[in-house]
Each structure stands twice: as structure tokens, then as C-alpha cells.
Amino acid sequence: MLELKVLGDHSETEVPQGGCSSGSCGSTDDQLSHLSESVRQRVFNHPCYSEQAHHHFARMHVAVAPACNIQCNYCNRKYDCANESRPGVVSELLTPKQAVKKTMAVAANIPQMTVLGIAGPGDPLANPNKTFSTFRMLTEQAPDIKLCVSTNGLALPDYADELTKHNIDHVTITINCVDPEIGAKIYPWVFWNNKRVRGVEGAKILIDRQQEGLEKLVERDILVKVNSVMLPGINDKHLAEVSRVVKSKGAFLHNVMPLIAEPEHGTYFGLMEQRGPTPKELQELQDECSGDMNMMRHCRQCRADAVGLLGEDRGAEFTMEKIEAMEIDYEAAMVKRKKVHDAINAELAKATTQSQSVNADHAIPAETRPVLMAIASQGGGLVNQHFGHAKEFLVYEASPEGVRFISHRKTDLYCTGGDTCGDGDSLLGGIIKALEGCEAVLCSKIGYEPWETLESAGIMPNGEHAMEKIEDAVWAVYVEMYQNGKLTDNQTQMTA
Amino acid sequence: MALKIVDRCVNCHACQMVCPTGSIRKGKNDAHFLINQDTCTECVGSYDEPQCSSICPIECAIEFSDGSPVNPFGSLTGLPLDKAPLV
Ligand code: SF4
Ligand code: SF4
Ligand code: SF4
User: Fold this and answer.
1) Which UniProt keywords apply (chain A) (predicted)?
2) What is the 8-class DSSP label of residue A331?
3) Touching check for A270 and chain B: CB below 8 Å?
4) What values do phi and psi take at A426, rounded to 5?
5) Are A109 and A141 in contact (CB under 8 A)?
6) Using CA atoms, how far apart are residues A143 and A164, in angstroms rounded to an integer?
7) Cα–Cα–Cα angle for A101, A102, A105, nearest 5°?
8) Residue among B3, B7, B32, B59 whose CB has most ligand 3 atoms within 8 A, to mutate
């Protein structure tokens, strides 16, 4: 019943296969390959689960559920729920009817939109009427849209059955800890059984409910993704344990996200100057946990009300005012959507086959050290963005085993324009900080000034692979570095 | 006997969902939420604690009838006083 063939009758062969032994197909390999075929079919076109799909399919979120039943120290209710989205951007609160209209308007105009999520501000399950009436209407009126929901888990066990009744096949639970002592440092209180319950006692209730909810969803064959916010000094040492526990209970992905806290957000952690992890710390934790469980590395902590494909936000085209004026023929839209989806699937299948052969003809000795590279990309899996226009970089690792996707690094997160970015040109300083550990940056073009600055920071700019597929370009640069003897010195990984 | 919502309220709807007497509504235009002074019972007879102020996440957003905050500054977040936002 949950096996939704949203994209119609794609055959087995059209599904990108995760098992590329070469390791060259980026995220597909390290995130999806361990999944069973049925799970893979359910997530391969979900932009939040597959980096490849992220380049071709789009998701959107609507804010219909403002209330919350707990307090997280990284949240200030004036902003979006940090569980799923970047704080600091206020979403437009919609009624369920408005949310349905908006979703269908976007789906008709952006056929690549495959997934609708209800996220912050607030907890969807603390607002069950609004959340489920939105889902009910969409399941009826727009059956080709997948639905997803993220929750703090407190109310989850009560709604496990209701969740099976809609086009929902993934639920995200934010689980930051399984130890109430740690929990008390993250959650000051929960509202439970008509009382505000504080401290360790409150955290224990939340943790128990999260685990119970996770178990119930797995029993009902709903895919569960677990998100954790990495809080250095609080739960960073504990998240490997969280990963182990949620995996043993059947969660299919564990996604570690960095804390984003600034004093101006007004959150407890922001005001108390709790720091977030550096890109390197985050990656180390993700690596540590991935021995345990496949991680989702490309989560961008999307803005809760963002609309559109990777890196773009077309929200301004879909304000309530404009939507009210639109006439939507959803029957016709569904036909068009199916055509677009089929074409993308074919494209994805082709791309997967091609990237499998990337490193077949190059013999790089197995002991050669791996190299991290940053890519400026506007999407489509290509090196196709001007360095100066990139707000985020995709980080890939090249090694003798091939090329794999590692993470995203947002530049605006590391540059606040203030003294945190170091001296001189603060924007560029912020980018260099964000690219810590990378030895090359691939883009379509780059100006002379940033070129020099990057070079002197030990990051080699490269504009020679414009419009090439990312995996191919990264591999070519890696081979070149090898041939120039840059990988044979006994210098291990650069950490500059 | 009634509680009162003041303008530190961020319109999160939480209190409205838990009020046993249906006394809470959204203010007109973009104003904050309001408690009907005639029907609010302070939850006496329904619950041990007033429900609205037990779920409200914002310190000093809900007041007793004498004007003192039900959740004073620092009582929900644990923030020290010198971090108090300017009221
Ligand atoms: S669950 Fe979401 S809305 Fe609720 S306090 Fe936590 S981050 Fe904020
Ligand atoms: S005190 Fe109780 S009755 Fe009064 S507004 Fe709050 S929840 Fe409603
Ligand atoms: S719970 Fe508090 S902040 Fe939220 S609407 Fe009610 S009074 Fe306002």
C-alpha cells in the first residue's frame, strides 16, 4: 500500500542501481547501496535522499503547523523549526486549504516537484488536525505527490496508524540523544500529559516516545530517517551510539546536521554562544557513524518554505496572492508531470551507467592518498557555476577506488561578514574556511583575485572542466594530480 | 480570574490547542493571541496547571491578572538574566 509508484511504470532497469562496485557514483554508492531494492525504489527519486535525485527532482515545504509540544535549545519559535530547516527565515503560515492550493500550483508549474513536506515552524504532529487535513486533501487531489513529515517524536506513537493512511512513505524523526542526561542539556522541557515536565525527567519522556514511535513506524513499513543535530561538547561523542541504536531498530538513514546558532537568532544556544561543528568535525563524525550506518551527506537543511530545485528558490512566484489567481488543471498537469518524470528517470539511469566506468581505464595505485575537492554547481550533476556565484560547494572525495560525494558546504554559514571570518576580504575568508581540507575547487569560471587567494591558501582553483559531469571532472583532476607527482609525497591528507 | 496574553506572544497557536474552555483566539489583523477574560477559568477544575502557560514557549507572554508573568524570564530557557532580551 505504501509502495507508491509515483512515477508510473518504470521498469527495474530504469532505477539507478546503487551497487556500483567502482564507488564512483557519489552518493548513490554510499547512501543507497545498502538498501533493499524495495526501499531504493521508494527513495531514488526523492531529492532529500539521493544526491543524484537532488539535481533533478524538487521538493517543497509548507508551514501549516506552528505549535510545538517541546522546547529545543536551538530553536526560537519565531523562526522555522531547526529540526528540519535553517533557522532565521520565517515561513508564511498557511491554512491547510491554502497549502493544498499552493502545492498543486507549484506541482503544475514545476513538474520536477515530487515531494511535499510539512516541517517547521512547529511540530506537525503537535498540530494533527492541520497536518492530516492537508495530507488527506493532497492524497485525494494530487496522488502523484509524495508526502513527508518531520517530527520531534513526542506525539509520534499516537499517530503511527494515521500516518499509514496517506501517501507518506518517509517520516523523519529528530533524535539528538538516547541518554536523558544529555537530553536535559538539549531540551529544557516537554509538554506531556497536561504538564510542563522539565530537565532529565522531560528528556526521558521524549526519548522513550521517539524510540517507541520509531519502532511503530518500522512495524508499519514506513521508512524512517533519523536526523541529529551535532552539538560539539554536548552530543558529539554520543551520536555514534545514537546511530547504532536507531539502525538496530530499523531506521534506514541517519543524517547528522550541524548546529547553526547565532546570537541574533535569539535561541538559547545562540545566546549562550554554543558553537556549531567545523566542516571537518562534521565530516569526521559522519565518517565515524557511516561505519555504523549509511549517512545522508547531502542534506542542505533546506529552508522550510523553499520552492524549487537544488539551490534555487522560486518561492516568490508562488505567493498566496498569485496562487489565488491561478487556474490549475491538475489532470492535465499530471500528464505533463509523468512525461517529465519519465525523461528524468531515463537520464538518471544513463548517468549511472556512465559514471560506473569513470575509473576503469586508469590504474592509480591503491595506496595513493585520497583528495577532497569542492565543486561549484547549479545542478544537473555538472561543474557549471561561477566561483563567485556559489553559495554552497559540493565536496567530493577522489581516491583510487573512485569518486564519491561527501557533503555540502554552505559558504554563507561560515561567513557572517564579521570578525569570525578573519582579516581582509571577509567573504573570501569565509569561503576558504568553509572549504577546509579541500585541495582543489572546480568551477566554470573564477576571477583573478580569488584565484590568487585560494592558491595561497593551498586550494587549487580549476576552471578547465566547465560543463563536465562532476565525477568525470573530479577524476580527471585526481589523475592529473597523480601524474604530476602531487599524491606520492608522504604528506598525508592536507588539513590546511 | 483569568490569565492574559501580552505582546511578547509570537502567535504560535500552542495555547489555543490546549485550552479546555476555548477561551483563546487570534487577535485581529496581526495582533497577538488573546484570552477571553469572561470564560477563562485559569483551568481550575480541569487541570492542575493552567494549560496555556504550561505549553507557551515564550517567557513573559502570559500574565496573571495582577500583571506578573506566569513564566518569568529565565524560567523556561534557563538563560541568565544578563541575556534577557530587551522588553
Ligand atoms: S521541535 Fe522544532 S519547533 Fe519544536 S522546539 Fe524543537 S526545533 Fe522548535
Ligand atoms: S488558563 Fe486555562 S482556561 Fe484560561 S486561557 Fe489558559 S488554558 Fe484556557
Ligand atoms: S503559546 Fe504563548 S506564544 Fe504561543 S500563541 Fe499562545 S501566548 Fe502566544
Assistant:
1) 4Fe-4S, Iron, Iron-sulfur, Lyase, Metal-binding, Nitrogen fixation, S-adenosyl-L-methionine
2) H
3) no
4) -70, -35
5) no
6) 15
7) 85
8) B32
- List the beta strands (DSSP E) in A378-429: 392-399, 402-410
Q: Does A271 touch chain B (CB under 8 A)?
A: yes
pLDDT tens series, chain A, 496 aa: 333 333 333 332 222 322 222 222 233 334 455 555 666 666 665 555 555 666 667 778 888 998 999 999 998 776 544 444 443 345 678 899 999 999 999 999 888 888 888 876 789 999 999 999 999 999 999 999 989 898 999 999 999 999 999 888 789 999 999 999 999 999 999 999 999 999 999 999 999 999 999 999 999 989 898 989 999 999 999 999 999 999 899 998 888 888 988 888 788 999 999 999 998 898 888 877 764 444 444 444 444 445 666 556 677 788 888 888 888 889 899 999 999 888 887 877 766 555 544 556 556 888 889 999 999 988 777 898 999 888 888 888 888 888 887 777 877 643 343 444 444 456 788 888 888 889 999 999 998 888 999 999 999 999 999 999 888 899 999 999 998 888 876 544 444 4
User: Measured between CA atoms, how close is A478 to chain B, in angstroms?
Assistant: 50
Gap between the Cα atoms of A333 and A493, Å rounded: 50
Host H or E run for residue A308: strand A307-308
CB burial class (10 A; 0-12, 13-18, 19+) of residue A65?
buried
Q: How many CB atoms lie within 10 A of CB A483?
A: 11
Per DSSP, the residues of A177-227 read -S-HHHHTTT-SEEEETTEEEEHHHHHHHHHHHHHHHHHHHHHTT-EEEEE
All 3 cell numbers of residue A493? 591528507
Query: Which amino acid makes up residue A276?
Result: G
Mutate to test the pocket of ligand 2, among B52, B64, B65 (most ligand atoms within 8 A of CB): B52
Sequence-distant (≥ 6) Cβ neighbours of residue A485 within 8 angstroms? none
Out of B14, B58, B76, closest to residue A188 by CB: B76
CA nearest A356: which of A396, A296, A403?
A403
A188 and B11: CB-CB below 8 Å? no
What single-letter amino acid sits at A401?
E
Name the grid cell of A98: 491554502
Q: How many angstroms from the chain centroid is the CA of residue A335? A: 29
ipTM confidence: 0.96
**Which residues lie closer than 8 Å to A167 by C-beta, 6 or more apart?**
A4, A135, A138, A139, A143, A145, A146, A147
Residue A197 contacts residue A205 (beta carbons within 8 Å): yes
Q: Find out whether the peptide bond into A128 is cis, omega within 30 degrees of 0.
A: no
A198: closest CA of chain B, how far (Å): 9
User: What is the separation of C-alpha A134 from the centre of its chain, rounded to a whole number of angstroms?
Assistant: 23
